[in-house]
UniProtKB/TrEMBL annotation:
Belongs to the NAD kinase family. The keyword GTP-binding does not apply. PANTHER family: NAD KINASE, NADH KINASE POS5, MITOCHONDRIAL. It comes from Neodothiora populina. It holds the Pfam family NAD_kinase_C. It comes from the Eukaryota. The keyword DNA repair does not apply. This is ATP-NAD kinase. InterPro entries: ATP-NAD_kinase_N, ATP-NAD_kinase_PpnK-typ_C, NAD/diacylglycerol_kinase_sf, NADK. Keywords: Kinase, NAD, NADP, Transferase. The lineage of its organism: Eukaryota, Fungi, Dikarya, Ascomycota, Pezizomycotina.
Length: 447
């Protein structure tokens, strides 16, 4: 039987005035939206307070954080699915929090979320809007490389947002938390700084006028179920030192070089600003068949002429990375220092050095070097143009305490507090040496 289409005309007539509807028969607002970070409120900067019982610092928010950047390990569908679970938890439990994703991640996952996400939109983002001006907290899902990448997104920032890391990578020496603890871990970070008893349970004690309008009360810390644990249970922070790196011409003019995050879609791939490195600065002979010859100056005085495959200047955090593989010392992250480690030096008497963090180190290419340049890498990102004769690489440790005795700078890493009666700030590091790096592990014995 031929259908009678005339009876359907009233339906189409009702829908025809609005041809922009994407989903008919639905009254809900459009989902799957990617927005620009320029629409977000400016960043809330926390303070880091000393305590009398341990070496770690205490995270204190002046008001609840609002903008959370989530950085994930690339190429892992399992991590991507976990990130969606994490994002849904934050959105449902902390309704005032906005999520920021990297552009390629936002494009992949936004259709699986029922709320908008924010990202840097490349050329459409105003020139004066930077990621470091918007992000309150950074969360990473992955391994040590993911943490290093997250740090590189703030390579030109003096103050890096606190980093909450969930270990989902290969090694995870820097990752402090398991994802099974994500609810507890994020709540501790979010509530740090809230007065004791702050929470939605206080609604019962509010005045009648305020209790009548819950929409005006359930904001910020009040929107979280339960009560705060008080300032004594705030999140603990380990400030990881960084290196301040500058590249200069022979006349002292700063040269442009790639930001460590330049492989990410950003408007500006180059900068003349000093760049901060979380792990190390590397000078290496690269494809040249001959050993590199590099002049080293420490504190303005000539130290030695290094003849080696390369040279590393590392932070204590980087002491368990490339420097460790090159025979360098393992340094506790609370020790304010930097490491000078040769890579396959010609002389057996050229040993690794540990120097104070405020010691300036200058590296130049010797006139004796047989090649025209050596490669320069900052946190694993190689500079397009290497170090040539007359140029200088200047490195010094970052100051993490101001003249007013206030803590800041570095990479604030959210860590667990130590066990009761233990030495806070050491349990996770010692555990990582034994459990992950197998420190002094005997041969021929089972675990």
């Amino acid at each position: 039987m031929t259908p009678h289409y005339g009876s359907m005309r009233p339906i189409f007539a009702r829908l025809s005035p609005n041809r922009s509807l994407l989903r008919c028969f639905s009254s809900t607002r459009c989902r799957w939206e990617i927005r620009d970070i320029a629409a977000l409120p400016d960043r809330i900067s926390p303070s880091y307070q000393e305590t009398t019982h341990h070496d770690l610092l205490c995270l204190q928010w002046p008001q609840p954080p609002r903008n959370v950047l989530v950085v994930i390990k690339d190429g892992s569908p399992a991590v991507r699915d976990t990130m969606i679970e994490y994002a849904n938890h934050i959105n449902s439990t902390y309704p005032d929090v906005s999520l920021i994703l990297e552009p390629h991640v936002a494009r992949e996952v936004h259709e699986g979320l029922e709320f908008p996400v924010y990202t840097t939109a490349g050329v459409s983002t105003p020139a004066n809007v930077r990621l470091q001006d918007k992000v309150d907290v950074t969360c990473t899902l992955g391994g040590d490389g993911t943490i290093l990448h997250a740090s590189s997104l703030f390579a030109t920032a003096r103050d890096v947002p606190p980093v909450l890391s969930f270990s989902m990578g290969t090694l995870g020496f820097l990752g402090e938390w398991k994802f099974s603890e994500h609810k507890r871990a994020f709540r501790e970070v979010f509530m740090s700084g809230a007065a004791a008893g702050y929470g939605s349970s206080l609604l019962q004690s509010e005045g009648n006028s305020e209790a009548a309008d819950k929409s005006s009360v359930l904001t910020g810390w009040s929107s979280v179920r339960g009560k705060s644990m008080g300032p004594s249970r705030s999140s603990r922070v380990l400030l990881r030192n960084r290196l301040k790196v500058g590249i200069f011409a022979a006349d002292g003019t700063p040269l442009t070089h790639e930001k460590p995050s330049s492989h990410v879609a950003t408007r500006e791939r180059h900068t003349t600003e000093e760049v901060y490195a979380m792990n190390e600065v590397l000078l290496h002979r690269g494809r040249e068949p001959h050993l590199a010859i590099i002049n080293i100056y420490v504190g303005g005085r000539f130290l030695t002429e290094a003849v080696a495959d390369g040279l590393l200047i590392s932070t204590p955090t980087g002491s368990t990375a490339y420097s460790l593989s090159s025979g360098g010392s393992i340094v506790h992250p609370l020790v304010s220092s930097l490491l000078l480690t040769p890579i396959c030096a010609r002389s057996l008497s050229f040993r690794p050095l540990v120097l104070p963090a405020n010691t300036p180190i200058t590296l130049t290419l010797s006139e004796k070097n047989r090649g025209d340049e050596v490669e320069v890498s900052v946190d694993g990102v190689r500079r397009e143009k290497g170090l040539t004769r007359g140029m200088e690489v200047r490195v010094v440790g970052e100051d993490i305490r101001s003249d007013q005795r206030e803590w800041g700078g570095g990479v604030p890493s959210i860590v667990r507090a130590g066990n009761a009666g233990g030495s806070d700030g050491q349990d996770h590091w010692v555990g990582g040496l034994n459990g992950l790096l197998k420190f002094n592990y005997p041969f021929g014995e089972d675990e």
